Task: structure prediction
Amino acid sequence: MMGLLVFREQVKAFYGKYSRYIMPVCKFVFALTAFISITLNTGYMVSLNNPFVPIVLAVACAFLSSAVITFFMCCLILIHLAAVSVEIMVVAALIFVLMFLLYFVFKPGNAWLMTLIVLLGLWDIPGAAILSVGLVAGPLSVVPVCFGLITCGMITLVKADLSVLASGTSSLNVIQKVIYYMDSVLRDEKILLLSIAALITVLIVWAVRRLSISYAWAVALAAGTVLYTLLVLTGNFIFDVNVNIAAVIISVVMGIAVGAALEFFLFAVDYSRTEYAQFEDDDYYYYVKAVPKISVTKPEVQVKNITEAAEDAREDE
Result:
């Protein structure tokens, strides 16, 4: 255990020293992975299927705010949808505008969560991030999470109904096409189930994590794991949503691993040394529970030259 704690301090020290280089690289890799995944799942605008397009966009995102990644992702999706149908692109644009209005007015800091959920949703493992969102983000984070799942639904529906929605092959007029697409998005039972499960899980994990109980993060992680799994599997059984059970299990296992890693790096405390204090002033009684953080330093290795030590001993004699 001591070795792991030393490793944690080394990682934190390394990040603190080189964060100005690490963050751009991480944003570049994250953005590039997201843009490539979106291109592979859409690809309707042939001119954007050039591999240099996601690379150039990812390079730009590396040196800009993380919210720009979500903005570029939405623009990329809209351009691909416009190649299918302008009407579908307008519907998607209205949904994106609604998300930005709902989220950026209140808490603009975690917009990149939408990109993360879209990326994992395209891989069919959105649950891998749900537990971590509840641990490290606030309750308003459910907005980008749910909109990320809705975005995945929009992409999947266009792929499934391409012959119906495409401008050149569709027998529907403009109004019928818009109504059909909006109805399909709003009535997608899988996206609705995953959104409800994500919303409830994030809120419960966040609430439990904030409790002043021992091992709050571990309890929140366990509660979120059980709750999310039960919600998805129960909804799949009752509504026959056709959720990939293997993907749900894989995503939950990944979520546990990521959550445990976050707890280790962000909330490592020693509950065996918990202290309780009580004091008062003119207006209140205060009851304080103090839990010390686990903190170690890298052991310093001292190398002693035996030859020089022997010579110093002879001189002393």
In short: The longest helix spans residues 2-41.
